[in-house]
């Protein structure tokens, strides 16, 4: 017998078995904790889209209409709404382990835009906690892109409820919800019907103020929305710029390009370049680069001490010089400032090697160096000249 002592001493005999039971119990508890953390144990049954959206709508109605309720009841409702919004977001985006179900997403989309749940969400946004508000913006972003039987339900809904945009845009004046409203607004602008409405409304003029708000985050968000408006739907933007050229560029030049704020100037000159170089805006670009006032603003920006602003300005300024039918006033200003311009561009360098930049710079300097002064009397009118402006791309 190999271990007789174990048989002679009962305590020793059973001690290993007791340790085994204790270890087994501890391991079981640990497994339960892990399962709970993963949500695999006692997982609540997922609600159907109809039930989930209806419950969410009821909670939003509560937050919209019940201002004087017990603190505990409001806390309970807040927790319910937080769970519901998270559940909707998970169904739309997936849980990290499985992809979202297309049929479920379609049902959620239909139900969400039914019975004005979207309107309730917009109206309740300021009353939600930060986490729920973030989930709400993610949900809205997803729903804007969902197609149900090849139809964009969100676009159809917003076309019938376009007044919601009148709520979202002024939200930039409310520091608490400005960023949330801005994120939702940009998603709505994905739809051409919404972008056209904003461009044609009085709200457009307000963006020049929002972009210059003292709060950096809100101002940057407003600038992002403004950029989305001016670049996403090209044909709509081209028509807007053509119909509103005078007031729009007057505001753009005076408030943005001539702003004392570095960020505002940098973003504005970059966006201007993007707009003018877009083929859909070719007629607007021709009109812009035939203006002596516009060129003077660009020449002043070239003198900005910041290298980034100088570079972005260069990409716009070269359009004035490249114009094969430059107005005589522009030619004469370029000739008058020829030596200064050639000296400036001769010393103008950038950190990264860029062959296209170098080629453009050489061509620009060559064009300026061969310009001859123009006699303004040779031209019957500046207007008729503008109609024949052509700038090779």
Main traits of this protein?
two-stranded antiparallel sheet, 2 strands, 393 residues, 1% strand, mainly alpha
Largest sheet composition: 2 strands, antiparallel
In the sheet with the most strands, the strands line up as: 1-2
Structural class: mainly alpha
What percent of residues adopt helix (DSSP H or I)? over 70%
Head-to-tail CA distance between termini: 99 Å
Uncertain regions spanning at least 5 consecutive residues: 1-25, 38-43, 378-393
Q: Count every helix, treating DSSP H or I runs of 4 or more residues as helices.
A: 23
Global geometry: elongated
Our estimate of the beta-strand percent is: under 5%
Radius of gyration: 32 Å
Sequence-ordered SSE layout with sheet pairings:
Layout: H1 4-8, H2 10-38, H3 49-65, H4 71-93, H5 102-112, H6 117-124, H7 130-145, E1 147-148, E2 151-152, H8 153-160, H9 165-168, H10 178-188, H11 192-200, H12 203-210, H13 216-231, H14 234-243, H15 245-257, H16 262-276, H17 282-289, H18 292-302, H19 307-322, H20 328-336, H21 338-347, H22 355-369, H23 382-386
Antiparallel strand pairs: 1-2
Helix pairs in contact: 3-4, 3-5, 3-6, 4-7, 7-10, 10-13, 13-16, 16-19, 18-19, 21-22
